[in-house]
Predict the 3D structure of the following.
Amino acid sequence: MDMDEIKELVRLMVENELSELDVSDGENKVKLKRGAGGEPVIVAAPAPAPAAAPVQTGIAAPTAAEEELIEIKSPMVGTFYAAADPDSEPNVSVGSGVDADTVVCIVEAMKVMNEIKADCTGTITEICVKNAQPVEYGQVLFKVKPA
């Protein structure tokens, strides 16, 4: 992608009041996010490097206990909120029991508050994101030990 194409993407982003834009064109990828002042910032634009041979890193494989955990993932891009409003207690915390209908958080996308349900039964073992943090589609929000 050349600079003219990126400038056009920025113009469209500002014109349509988008806070984030992710574009792929073959091997070229551009991810744009609007900064605190509303100005677009290029987050990533380099073409991927050629694949190299796998390298042993010394990182241990997940333990059996970690493999048994259920991950509650974000179904959309948006902003994670642990509670319905800033003055309320979080919907769940580590150690909270959940079932399929338990609302665990809210993800705001395009000014719409979307309740995210656990869709599983168990106990919250880890909260993987912080309140008011931007989240991506498929990002792990919680880990649950099945009941």
Notes: Residues 12 and 89 are 38 Å apart (CA to CA). The first strand starts at residue 20 and ends at 25.
